[in-house]
Amino acid sequence: MIETWRWFGPQDLVSISDVAQTGATGVVSALHHIPTGDVWELDEIRKRQREVATMPDGSPSGLEWNVVESLPVSEDIKKRSGEWRAHVSNYCQSMANLAEAGIYIICYNFMPILDWTRTDLSWRLKNGATCMRFDIIDFAAFDIHILKRAHAEKDYDAKLRQSAARRFQEMSEQDRKQLTENIVCGLPGAAEKFSLDDVRAHLNEYSDIPEKRLRSNLVRFLAEVAPVAQDLGIRLCCHPDDPPFSLLGLPRIMSTEEDYRIVMEEVDIPANGITLCSGSLGARPDNDLVGMMQRLGDRVHFMHSRNVKRETADVRGSFYESEHLRGDTNMVLLIGAALQEEARRRDEGREDWSIPFRPDHGQDILDDLGRKAQPGYPSIGRLKGLAELRGIIAALEPRTEMH
Ligand code: DNO
Question: Is the CB of 241 under 6 A from ligand 1?
Answer without folding.
Answer: no
